[in-house]
Amino acid sequence: LREDDRRVRHYWFTSWPDHHVPQCSAPLLRLVEEVEAYRGSLLLPGSRPITSSDVSAAGPVVVHCSLIICPGLSCTTLSAGIGRTGCFIVSSIGCQQLREAGQVDMLEKVCQLRLDRGGMKKTTEQYQFLYSTLAQNSSQLQHQKDQTPLEPVSIRLQELNL
Fold first, then answer.
1. How many C-beta atoms surround the C-beta of residue 65 within 10 A?
2. Cβ within 8 Å of residue 66, ≥6 positions away
3. Residue-wise pLDDT tens digits, 31-50
4. DSSP run (H or E) holding 152
5. pLDDT digits 0-9 by tens, 93-108
6. What CA–CA distance (Å, rounded) separates 89 from 111?
7. Given 24, 65, 75, 95, which residue is catalytic?
């Protein structure tokens, strides 16, 4: 790439209904993980979750979730980019905070986003979906933590039934 060229990777969440939420949060969590893994791959060989300190090194993620209708040769973009986009951004930030700190203040994140873009996160349904998404992510993180190999001392104690 030339110095003034930029590489763009486009993710398109096609099954998210306008003004509503998906029926389950698993596809959104997969999208968050995929975007994060890709950004991490730009930093170091291999793929790893990035931390907040890595963000500036990897470059920005541009998010706009819109409904695009292409009835023929022309396409029309519908949506203001505040509902679904806000859900993605809060989910991404929330997953990162859960991983790094073990907790997230979703209301604080939504309020911060609204300072940057008015109307971000519009409906009660979207708030409920976000809580559900972050609860599912928290459960996944706990399950991964529980699956980590035990230290040799712990294994030996279990063998001795102590």
1. 20
2. 77, 78, 79, 81, 84
3. 999 888 887 777 655 545 55
4. helix 152-159
5. 999 999 999 999 888 8
6. 12
7. 65
Q: What distance in Å separates the CA atoms of residue 20 and residue 18, rounded to the nearest whole number? A: 5
Q: Which amino acid is at 33?
A: E
Distance between CA 96 and CA 32 in Å, rounded? 10
Token digits for 100?
A: 């790094």
Q: Homologous superfamily of 26-159 in CATH?
A: Protein tyrosine phosphatase superfamily (3.90.190.10)
Q: Output the DSSP codes for 5-41.
A: ---------TT--TTS--S-SHHHHHHHHHHHHHHHH
Helix axes 84-101, 26-43, angle to 10 degrees: 70
111 labelled catalytic: no
Contact between 37 and 49 (Cβ < 8 Å): yes
86: tokens are 């806000």
Give alpha helix (H) positions in 2-150: 26-43, 55-58, 84-101, 106-116, 124-146
Q: Of residues 35 and 149, which shows the higher confidence score?
A: 35
Q: What is the CA radius of gyration of the chain?
A: 19
φ, ψ of residue 67 to 5 degrees: the values are -95, 120
